Amino acid sequence: ECFYEPKDEL
Amino acid sequence: MNAFRLAGDMTHLLSIILLLHKIRAMKSCAGISLRTQELYVIVFVTRYVDLSMKYYSFYNSIMKIVFLGTSISIVWYMRYHKVVKQTYNKDVDTFRHIFLILPCFVLALLINRAFTVIEVLWTFSLYLEAVAILPQLVLLQRSRNIDNLTGNYVFLLGAYRAFYLLNWIYRFFIENHQVRWIPWLSGLLQTAIYADFFYYYIKSWKNREKLKLPA
């Protein structure tokens, strides 16, 4: 869903 | 992944390598705050709970495992290694964890993107990371002698989040990513906390003097 930015950072 | 993000991760990794070198090769943790290191363990454990649930990339998973493993081993060395633990400046490292953990946790409960366990823990880790360096900075201020390794360690640790700020700007404008107030503002605060340290670090480097923070 677009509400969450993917947590692809550290 | 853009160059700023990579530079941020690499300075973060380098700072940890530097600290581990000091601990393993020099058998010393003088000038290093155990409080700050313990806070980092909490930061990584609460942020990377998604490690087993969500896969982003090989790079991402490996880095998470490295950050978790190294932070736990640093704390282990400082607490239990029979030589290293004797170099720990216990008497000056007196900042209370709870004064940082509790407000960050309450703030994460109040201000988050969704009231779920993962999301609250993730938000808490960002708030806590922003202020986790404070015990270390207090310890440096109280230390007469800051060795080069320790100074460089703290500098790289601060540079890491500064690169992330550039990465967020890049992602927002070039890659059209969404607005993300929680990581942005906590990252900005995290970098701002280093401002004073950066100033004295660069000054001592330019004048080729030993780093010393005014009390």
TrEMBL record, chain B:
UniProt xrefs under PROSITE patterns: ER_LUMEN_RECEPTOR_1, ER_LUMEN_RECEPTOR_2
Signal sequence range: 1-25
Membrane topology, from the record: Multi-pass membrane protein
Pfam families xref list: ER_lumen_recept
Subcellular location: Endoplasmic reticulum membrane
GO molecular function term, any single one: ER retention sequence binding
Superkingdom of origin: Eukaryota
Keywords linked to the UniProt accession: Endoplasmic reticulum, ER-Golgi transport, Membrane, Protein transport, Receptor, Signal, Transmembrane, Transmembrane helix, Transport
The keyword Transport belongs to this UniProt entry's keyword annotation: yes
Sequence intervals crossing the membrane: 58-77, 98-115, 121-140, 152-170, 182-202
A GO biological-process term: vesicle-mediated transport
Recorded GO CC terms: endoplasmic reticulum membrane
Family the UniProt entry places it in: Belongs to the ERD2 family.
Name this polypeptide is given: ER lumen protein-retaining receptor
Organism of provenance: Cocos nucifera (Coconut palm)
